[in-house]
Design brief:
The protein has 71 residues and is an alpha+beta fold. The chain has three helices and three strands; from the N terminus they run αβααββ. The protein has helices spanning 5-25, 30-37, 43-55, and strands at 27-29, 59-62, 66-69. The mean pLDDT is 94.
């Protein structure tokens, strides 16, 4: 199934919102952040967003699943 423009824009907004939250917090336990987002996304989606941000070099996952903004 080919994603439509609305779905792509929604995905970009979601990734941006997660990135902004981590940036504002500086560091945050992954589980605590996910707990705040459970009404918006499932764990698979959350992990994909985190992996995308790590791959982009914006955040890093420290031991004990701490997420830290690095840019």
């Amino acid at each position: 199934m080919k994603p439509d423009k609305q779905n792509v824009l929604a995905a970009i907004e979601l990734v941006s919102a997660v990135a902004d939250a981590i940036r504002e917090l500086g560091t945050v336990p992954s589980g605590q952040l996910y707990a705040r987002l459970t009404d918006v996304m499932d764990i698979r989606c959350f992990e994909q967003v985190v992996a995308l941000l790590v791959k982009a070099g914006l955040i890093e996952r420290l031991p004990n699943n701490i997420l830290r903004w690095v840019e």
